[in-house]
């Protein structure tokens, strides 16, 4: 019985930790939360101050 409670606590604890980690990363934004953000060459428009693709396409229309 105690083993079952311990295993259940470990599972729920890990699920809570994973959910917390996901919420923290999602608040940082796409590029800030990326592990390659310092060396990334994909040109995140919000980080570099360039207009995003949606705004650029809207101006052309």
In short:
By secondary structure, the protein is mostly helical. It has helices spanning 2-28, 30-33, 45-48, 53-60.
Structure characterization notes:
The protein has helices at 2-28, 30-33, 45-48, 53-60. The protein is rod-shaped. The chain has four helices and no strands. The protein starts with a helix and ends with a helix. The model is unreliable at 46-51 (pLDDT under 50). With 61 residues, it is mainly alpha-helical.
Task: Write out key terms for the chains shown.
single chain; mainly alpha
Strand content: under 5%
Biggest sheet descriptor: none
Uncertain segments of ≥5 residues (pLDDT<50)? 46-51
State the order of secondary-structure elements, H for helix, E for strand. HHHH
**Global outline:** rod-shaped
Helix content: over 70%
**DSSP summary: helix tally:** 4
Query: What average pLDDT do the residues reach?
Result: 74
Structural class: mainly alpha
What is the tally of beta strands? 0
Q: Note the gap between the termini.
A: 66 Å
